[in-house]
Amino acid sequence: RMSQAVQVATGQTANISVQLPRGSINVNAVPWAQVWLDGQPLGETPIGNVSWTIGTHEIVLRHPDLGERRVSTTITTGEAARVAVDMRKAQ
Length: 91
Fold this sequence. Notes:
The chain is an all-beta fold. About 0% of the residues lie in helices and about 55% in strands.
């Protein structure tokens, strides 16, 4: 949570920007997979301690022989979010 004082004249509008705090995420897959977080490529698993904004995010894992998996996870400012996927198992 945060607070910010903003002065807005009557009949006017004001834009403010909010920078979300960051947390971290670790992603692993068996046997391995390429990983995208919110559409941004992260590389090949295992991936550790990636700094990302807090909130709910979509992870896409792709393996050339085992297909694609989509996972939703929540990143917080506390403990690192951990995602582990067995690409050999059907969804």
